[in-house]
Design a protein that fits this description.
Number of helices: 7
Strand content: under 5%
Length: 154
């Protein structure tokens, strides 16, 4: 969150909830506290991702990581506004997801992160395409073999 007080690993400090909110910026926080907050934030983030994508657990691991990264950074409210991105995720159109991620205010505000995550999503699209082509090639070879085999029997 741009302009908001955070601590540890991107934890958004909230007045009345986090005692660190009233601390001076730069005050040391224990590793245990940072880990506690991060663990809670990750659980919330995954839960939020499942609100947006009820099939979140069925998505490829890399897609889960990318979407969780976005949701962690933006929060559920802003993450939910990526309507076309989420529709493309449901269709498993990773190349479209990659491009759509960059067509946003989020990408303008955090261009390095947006580019990195978009590139990772594009790599997922390429990987899916390669798997598909391997399947097509294997299917073509398998059907050729069965035709050849059956023609010998006649």
């Amino acid at each position: 969150h741009i302009g908001y007080k955070t601590l540890g690993i991107g934890h958004l400090c909230i007045a009345g909830v986090d005692p660190e909110y009233d601390m001076v910026v730069g005050t040391p926080v224990s590793v245990e506290r940072v880990n506690e907050l991060f663990e809670k934030d990750i659980k919330r983030t995954i839960s939020d991702c499942k609100i947006v994508h009820d099939d979140f657990d069925d998505l490829p691991d890399e897609a889960q990581k990318i979407l969780a990264n976005m949701c962690f950074q933006m929060g559920l409210g802003r993450f939910m506004k990526f309507h076309l991105t989420h529709a493309l995720v449901k269709k498993r159109f990773w190349d479209g997801v990659s491009r759509e991620m960059l067509d946003s205010r989020w990408a303008e505000q955090t261009p390095n992160r947006a580019q990195q995550l978009s590139q990772r999503m594009a790599a997922l699209a390429l990987s899916a395409f390669r798997c598909f082509m391997n399947f097509v090639m294997y299917s073509a070879l398998s059907s050729t073999r069965s035709i050849t085999s059956s023609s010998r029997l006649s």
